[in-house]
């Protein structure tokens, strides 16, 4: 009740004059002209574009804009944390602080990318006919952009370390289906902020439907099976850019990608036993094949966290880059890949992957069915309650 009350107060304070939060970074603009770089002009243009947005992009996006602006202009957050009752400033501080040591240049680029995706999605969503699926143009939990033959799907809940809530599972499936049909040659999945993803959002376990926990677990297994199925069936080269730590399902899915590039800040952690759960994303099959059964056991059963270097040595990661040059180096490479003949790439992927597809779908079905049982276990319920009660979320 207290949380709902706080959320209501936040919404009341933020909703009225649509762009209240995003106007803040704009009026506080103090450009450090001596530090100008190539993208400074884009950054300034993006700030102007923000003022012209016709629709309110929502509080989560406005906080994102605010935090990227602060990171791009001032660097990592070193302000004292506002008190718990200073709700708006605390939310802003949290968003900025969540960016950790994200370099100023990357923050500036992310700000520009975010504004560009907003401008196109909010403009075109105002043109869609009534009844058209709004998610084909605007996403709540993702930033999807397509240029230079590359569709980029960016997980966009940085203040929650890009944890996958139910909406995000649906939006990723939607984005993958759209990317499989668009005219891009390759598709990239990455994370916004300091994390790639912290895996399944543990609050997914909290809203229990009238049918009780059994119904919840059954629906969860159906959703998970469909979600992983989209990765198994994805027809174009699918590349993960692991920009920071990855946890749980965001790690296991990597076995279904065609290439995995990681920043040296990334770590790979699958604490399934700690959570009373079991492996998914076909990792019970792909990981032993990729890295040997014993190494897979260390990760999937004992929850050993790997550095990017270790994950690369074990074949889960294709190549590791220093964080400071990660974005520049991988995007140069991806742009070159995207110029290759797209049909040849699809066909080559097909021949590499297709003979495994049936097996992967069977593994996926089995893993989901086992997890459905785990979600009802005391071990799992206790672990989720422990996480959520850590900060009085229950
Ligand atoms: C029956 C249910 C059906 C469900 C629907 C289908 C589900 C399919 C499920 C597929 C199976 C997937 C399995 C997994 O992925 S297992 C892995 C789950 N993830 C975790 O256990 C990670 C939990 N998070 C953490 O340990 C830490 O947050 C982390 C180490 C990632 C970062 O720590 P740090 O101290 O740096 O930051 P905070 O903890 O303060 O995090 C910032 C805020 O983000 C929230 N957060 C982060 N991760 C999650 C998460 N996974 N779930 C929910 N919330 C998360 C965190 O609470 C903070 O929020 P506040 O600022 O509001 O406090």
From TrEMBL:
The keyword Isomerase is annotated on this UniProt entry: yes
Reaction catalysed by this enzyme: a (3E)-enoyl-CoA = a 4-saturated (2E)-enoyl-CoA; (2E)-tetradecenoyl-CoA = (3Z)-tetradecenoyl-CoA; (3E)-nonenoyl-CoA = (2E)-nonenoyl-CoA; (3E)-octenoyl-CoA = (2E)-octenoyl-CoA
Pathway: Lipid metabolism; fatty acid beta-oxidation
Keyword annotations: Acetylation, Isomerase, Mitochondrion, Peroxisome, Phosphoprotein, Transit peptide
GO function term, MF aspect, one: fatty-acyl-CoA binding
Localization: Mitochondrion; Peroxisome matrix
Listed PANTHER family: ENOYL-COA DELTA ISOMERASE 2 (PTHR43684:SF1), PTHR43684
PROSITE patterns in the record: ACB_1, ACB_2
E.C. number: 5.3.3.8
Family: In the C-terminal section; belongs to the enoyl-CoA hydratase/isomerase family.
A Pfam family of this chain: ACBP
CDD domains tied to this protein: ACBP, crotonase-like
Protein name, as recorded: Enoyl-CoA delta isomerase 2
Coiled coil found in the keyword field: no
Source organism per UniProt: Theropithecus gelada
InterPro entries in UniProt: Acyl-CoA-binding_prot_CS, Acyl-CoA-binding_protein, Acyl-CoA-binding_sf, ClpP/crotonase-like_dom_sf, ECH/Chromodomain_protein, Enoyl-CoA_hydra/iso, Enoyl-CoA_hydra_C, FERM/acyl-CoA-bd_prot_sf
